[in-house]
Amino acid sequence: MAYTSADTLCTASARGNLPEVLSLLQNGADVNGFNKYKRTALQVVMLGNTALVRALLVAGADPNLRDRVLSLTVTHDAAREGFIDSVRVLVDHGADPNLVDDLGNLPLHLAAREGHLEVVQLLIGRTENPQAPNGLGDTARQLALNHKRMETVKYIDEYLSSD
Fold it and tell me: What is the C-alpha separation between 76 and 113, in angstroms, rounded?
């Protein structure tokens, strides 16, 4: 299989190489083009590089494209890993926090399970139903409790009681 401009863009994105990504985009690389693994530059982006995430979104990257394996979006990935700034940029640029993966998890479920309190604080008010169960019947609060993320449990309890 030939190495395409999408492959080059994805490699630069995964490495966090903002100057190369910007150059490739300026020279006509398709921001939503699929690499040989059927992923886009935003799907493989170095999530801690918020400037790069923002640049891809500004260039028209679709934040709601799903990974072909588990139907995860980049917001699921960023929430699970606790990249608060990346999650903020994603939702500010049209990422839908209400999309579920193949297991019924919202980004909120993954952030709560991992105890990423700041991400939970950001997503909970942007999630249509923060008490929605995932495919196994667990809510974000239950996942936090099951994984002993007590600060997160406390915050979710306070949020839900103030509704």
Answer: 12
C-alpha 88/C-alpha 1 separation (Å) is 36
Tokens found for residue 119: 């991400």
pLDDT tier, 163 (very low <50, low <70, confident <90, very high otherwise)? low
Q: What is the pLDDT of residues 98-140, one digit of tens each?
A: 999 999 999 999 999 999 999 999 999 999 999 999 999 999 9
DSSP 90-142: HHHTT--TT---TT---HHHHHHHHT-HHHHHHHHTTSS-TT---TTS--HHH
Indicate whether this model's pTM tops 0.85.
Answer: yes
Q: Which amino acid is at 157?
A: D
Number of C-alpha atoms within 13 angstroms, CB side, residue 74? 32
Average pLDDT estimate for 37-64: 96
Whole-angstrom CA distances from 63 to 1, 60, 66, 146 are 27, 9, 9, 29
Token output for 38: 């059927």
CA 37 to chain centre: 19
